[in-house]
Amino acid sequence: MLEELVTNLEGLFQDYDFSSLPQKKQTEEKKPRIRPIQRNQMILHPIEVDRLIPEYHEARAIWEITGSLDLSCYYDHVDAVEGGAGAPAFDPRLLVSLWVYSYSKGISSSREIARLSKYDPAYQWLTGMRPVGYHTLADFRSAHKDSLRQLFVEILAILTSEGLVTMERVMHDGTRIKASAGRDTFRGEKRLHEYIAQAEAQVKAMEEACEEEMAPRIRKARERAVRERKERLSHALGELEKIKSQKRSTQTRVSITDPECRIMGQSDGGYAPAYNVQLSTDAHEKAIIAVSVSQSSADQTLCAPAMDRIEETTGRLPEKLVVDGGFTTRNAILAAERRGIDLIGSLPDTAAIRINAFREEKIAEAFYPEHFLFDPERNVYICPEEKILAHRGRSIHPGKTTYRYQGKECKNCPSKPSCCPHAAKGRFISRIENDPIVEAFIAKMKTDEAKAIYRQRGEVAEFPNAWIKEKLGLRQFHMRGLLKAEMEALWASITYNIKLWIRLCWKPRLEITG
Ligand code: SF4
What atom of ligand 1 comes closest to residue 410's alpha carbon? Predict the structure, then answer.
C-alpha cells in the first residue's frame, strides 16, 4: 500500500522544474550589506527639550525646589533691567540649579559645567539648550556670600516644614578639607620681606620705564600683576603676624598662594594646608543645620561658636548638643549652660598626659599625687614622708580653680631623687576644684542615658562629613581664602540637604502621584 502511494507521488512531480524555487543556501558567499556612516552632511534634528530627561530625573527635583525659594537676594544683584541696554542676565535660579546639580554629581569645576551644558541632556534641560559660560558660573559661585547663607536658610526652612529637622538632638563635628595651596608655597618671614622688596622694586622699575618701551595694554597688565603679587605677599605677612600672636601656634611659615589656610593634621596621619570645616547635623534625618569654616586646627575653642552659628541659621537652639572629646571643654560646658542647651560630650581623660609628664620628670610611681593625702581642714597635703605641702596660691579659669601646694622640707629629704629630682624649691602638687556646673556635667555623663546618646554621635555627625568628601568629591577646596572656602562648604551643604529632600520627600511623592 505504501509503495503504491510513493510511486504515485513521484509520478505527480516528475515534470516540475525545482530550480525555479528560491535556493535556501547560496553556494557563492556575498558581502554583508551595512548602513553607511555619512558625516559630511547637515541635519536638522527637532528636540523636545522637556523630554530630554525622564520625569524622575534629579535635575527636575532641583529645579522644583529652587523654584520654591525666595531668591530675591540674588535678583537684587542683577544689573540688566527690562528696557535697558545690554544682554539679559542669566537667571539666578538657573545658576543655583546648575551648581547644585553639578555638586551632586561630584563636579565642582565651572569649566566642566560649561562644557557639559553643551551636550549633557540634564544640563541642556536645565539651561533650555542655552549653554552658560564658565566665567558666569565661576563668578556666581564666589559672589554674594550673604545671599548664599540666605539660600542655605531657605532650604533648611523647607526641610523643617517637611519634618526632617526637629532640633531635639544635634551632633556637631569638624573635618579638615585641604586648601587650594601646596606645601611648597609656604614661606617664612624673612623670605616674605625679600619678596615684597622685589615686588616694590619691580613696581618702581615699571614706573621709571619709558612709555615707548611697552604697549600700554601690556604695561597695564604687568603693573596689575606686580601690584596684586605685592598685595598677596603683604596679606601673607599679615597672616603670619596673626599666627605668631596666637599662644599655642607652632607654625612659623605661611602660604603665599592662600595665606589664610593653615597646616593641619589629616585623617591619614599626615599634615597639609587645610581649613577646619564645622558641620552641625540634626540627628532626626541627618540634615546639616549649620556650617562654618575655621582656621583653627584644634576643636577645643569651636563648640561655643558652633552653638551661636546654629542659632543664627535656624533661629533657635537645639535641646541637646552632642560633641566629641575634642570639643568638650569646661568653657563649652559653661557656654551650653548659659544658652540652656543640654551638652553631651566627653571631657578628655588627662590621666595619661599627667603620667607621661611625671615619667619625663623622672618621678617614681610611689610619689604620684594619689599617694599624697589632702587635709581639707588645714588646707595642706601630707606627703609619703609625712611632711606638709603648704598652700601656695590658686589660679581661676572658666569652670575650674586650681590650688597649688609646695613642700618646704624637700631639700634634705632622702626621697627627693624619687619625688622631685629636678625641683629646686621643693615638690609641687595641684588640686583642681571644678565649677558645680562642670561637676554636674561629669555626673550626667556617667549615666546610661547620656552614654547611649553619646554612642550615636559618630554615626550621625560623621555621616555628612564622609558624604561631602566621598559623594560630592570635596576633598580639596577650589577657591582660596577663608571666606571663599566657607562659601564652597555652604554650596556642598546646600547640595547635601537638597539630596536629602529629594530622597525623603520628592521621590516618595512622585511614586504616589505616579
Ligand atoms: S621630697 Fe618633699 S614632698 Fe617629696 S617626699 Fe620628700 S619631703 Fe615629701
Answer: 2
The whole-angstrom separation of Cα 304 and Cα 24 is 87
pLDDT at 248: 66
**φ and ψ of 298, to 5 deg:** -90, 140
Residue 494 makes CB contacts below 8 A (sequence gap 6+) with 100, 148, 151, 152, 155
Report which ligand 1 atom has the smallest distance to the Cα of 413. Answer: 6
- Which residues on adjacent β-strands are paired with residue 403? 394, 431
DSSP 212: G
Residues 440-469: b if buried by 16+ CB within 10 A, e if exposed: ebeeebeeeebeebbeebeebbbbbbebbb
Which residues, other chains included, contact 286 with Cβ-Cβ below 8 Å and sequence gap of 6+?
Answer: 460, 463, 464, 500
| Distance of CA 427 from the midpoint of ligand 1 (Å) | 6
- What DSSP string runs through 336-378? HHHHT-EEE------HHHHHHHHHHTT--GGGSGGGSEEETTT
Query: Do residues 489 and 178 touch, judged by C-beta distance below 8 A?
Result: no
489 close to ligand 1 (CB < 6 Angstrom): no
Does 254 contact ligand 1 (Cβ within 6 A)? no
Calculated CA dihedral for residues 117, 121, 125, 131, nearest 10 degrees: 20
Which tens digit of pLDDT belongs to each residue from 469-508?
A: 998 989 999 999 999 999 999 999 999 999 999 999 999 9
Query: Which grid coordinates are listed for 21?
Result: 524555487
Helix (H/G/I), strand (E/B), else coil: 229: helix
Interatomic CA distance for residues 396 and 402, integer angstroms: 6
Over residues 300-314, the pLDDT tens digits come to: 899 999 999 999 999
Asked if residue 7 has pLDDT above 70, the reply is: no
**Residue 232: strand, helix, or coil:** helix
Which atom of ligand 1 lies closest to the CA of 383? 8
User: Is there a contact between 497 and 465 (Cβ–Cβ < 8 Å)?
Assistant: no
C-alpha 43 – ligand 1 centre gap (Å): 98
E-state strands within 385-464: 388-397, 400-407, 428-434
Indicate whether residue 406 lines ligand 1 (CB < 6 A). no
Smallest CA-to-CA distance from 174 within 457, 380, 417 is with 457
**Atom number in ligand 1 closest to CA 389:** 3
